[in-house]
């Protein structure tokens, strides 16, 4: 049993911390900016509530964060009451936030100054993967720190891979988001076309999903997309935040992302339609409105 600090009990963090407590049988202390959510988590899973990130991290073997963006991450780690003020030597810091590679490298260096390890470990699989404990985790950092943390992360992940040095996990998550952008738009257009052509969409999908067109999005979202149901976790606001990170990194490394930029504009249309909290499959809504 390890002593674990978990900072951030949002849509993803809440169930992930729960898996650590229920499946991993770890001694878990949680911190969340909204105290009510921490109270609810402890009522459901047990464990302890900390008043600050620093209090949560005090004496912890592993410190996990799952917050909103670079600024939030910097606040809960390096801020006045941040976790790094009490991060012990030999501890491993694991960040599941989708953030920039820049902050990942910054925190890796800051942890190292304290004799601790750090891993940037963004996840893929969405809310359903978090709740089911079936996430894919892409990791940047050192091999020794990864070896320590991997068994703990596997409590809620079906795949955990070390990609490379600090920042590599975040860069891989950017690759993931770039791939998904084109897939969802392609599926939205295909479903829209099939409907307008008067085809039996279920028969079409049953057929083409056995061939080269198959994707996770097709298998899991085609039916809800044609039904106009968009309440499956990963919101349009969030994907546009992720795209902004991708574009910023692309400006640095010289990569060209024309399709991703176009899909980002389409998501801006969805936001204007009132779909800020719709999930990413809602791209079909902007096609159906015309």
Q: What is the gist of this entry?
A:
The chain contains 13 helices and nine strands. The chain has helices at residues 13-22, 35-45, 53-57, 70-78, 101-113, 126-132, 143-153, 168-196, 201-208, 216-226, 236-253, 258-272, 283-288; strands at residues 3-7, 27-31, 48-49, 62-65, 92-95, 117-120, 123-124, 135-140, 157-164.
Description:
The chain is of the alpha/beta class and 290 residues long. The chain folds into two domains: 3-164, NAD(P)-binding Rossmann-like Domain (Rossmann fold, 3-Layer(aba) Sandwich); 171-288, N-(1-d-carboxylethyl)-l-norvaline Dehydrogenase, domain 2 (Orthogonal Bundle). The protein has 13 helices and nine strands. It has helices at residues 13-22, 35-45, 53-57, 70-78, 101-113, 126-132, 143-153, 168-196, 201-208, 216-226, 236-253, 258-272, 283-288; strands at 3-7, 27-31, 48-49, 62-65, 92-95, 117-120, 123-124, 135-140, 157-164. The strands form two sheets. A six-stranded parallel sheet has the order 3-2-1-4-5-6, sandwiched between helices. Helix 8 (168-196) packs across helix 10 (216-226), helix 8 packs across helix 12 (258-272) and helix 11 (236-253) packs antiparallel against helix 12. It is globular and about 65 Å long. The model has no long low-confidence stretch (mean pLDDT 96).
């Amino acid at each position: 049993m390890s002593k674990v600090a978990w900072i951030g009990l949002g849509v993803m963090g809440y169930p992930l911390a729960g898996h650590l407590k229920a499946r991993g049988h770890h001694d878990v202390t949680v911190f969340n900016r909204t105290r009510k959510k921490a109270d609810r988590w402890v009522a459901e899973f047990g464990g302890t509530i900390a008043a600050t990130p620093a209090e949560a991290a005090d004496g912890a073997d592993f410190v996990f964060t799952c917050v909103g963006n670079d600024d939030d991450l910097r606040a809960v780690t390096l801020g006045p009451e941040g976790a790094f003020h009490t991060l012990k030597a030999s501890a491993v810091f694991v960040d599941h936030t989708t953030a920039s590679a820049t902050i990942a490298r910054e925190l890796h260096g800051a942890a190292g100054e304290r004799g601790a390890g750090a891993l940037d470990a963004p996840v893929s699989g969405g809310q359903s993967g978090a709740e089911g404990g079936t996430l894919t985790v892409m990791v940047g950092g050192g091999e020794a720190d990864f070896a320590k943390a991997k068994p703990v992360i596997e409590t809620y992940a079906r795949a955990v891979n070390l990609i490379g040095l600090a920042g590599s996990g975040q860069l891989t998550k950017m690759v993931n988001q770039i791939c998904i952008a084109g897939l969802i738009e392609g599926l939205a257009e295909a479903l829209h076309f099939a409907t307008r052509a008067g085809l039996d969409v279920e028969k079409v999908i049953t057929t083409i999903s056995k061939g080269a067109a198959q994707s996770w999005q097709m298998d899991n979202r085609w039916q809800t997309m044609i039904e106009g149901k968009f309440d499956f976790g990963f919101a349009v606001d969030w994907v546009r935040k992720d795209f902004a990170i991708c574009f910023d990194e692309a400006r640095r490394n010289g990569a060209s992302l024309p399709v991703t930029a176009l899909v980002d504009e389409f998501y801006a249309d969805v936001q204007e339609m009132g779909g800020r909290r719709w999930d990413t499959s809602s791209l079909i809504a902007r096609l159906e409105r015309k």
